[in-house]
Amino acid sequence: MVELDVIASINWNPVYGERLREMRGKVSMQHLADEVTQKFNYPVTKQYIAMIERPFGDKASKTVSFQLLRYICKILGKDVQDIFGSPKIMQKQTSHT
Questions:
Q1: What is the per-residue pLDDT for 46?
Q2: Which residues pair with 9 in a beta bridge?
Q3: The CATH number of 4-84 is which of 1.10.260.40, 3.30.70.20, 3.30.2130.30, 3.40.190.290?
Q4: Annotated Gene Ontology MF terms (predicted)?
Q5: 3-state secondary structure of 64
């Protein structure tokens, strides 16, 4: 098992992007970006969320901050493990997660 706090970034791909888009559902990218920025003091734009949901082309990010993914999932009321399908990831309980 791996503790979530030791993961800095994820090698990103279109499958993960599609899962994230499905998890977001009807929540707007702008609302999601605003919530992550306000609640977690982690600046993110709707353009960046759009890019990670559809990571195609030369300018697409090859990696995504795992912390950002955790924040996005918290806002959506989802589990970050849902993006990856498996394996199980152990989360250490702390006051700042």
A1: 96
A2: 65
A3: 1.10.260.40
A4: DNA binding
A5: strand
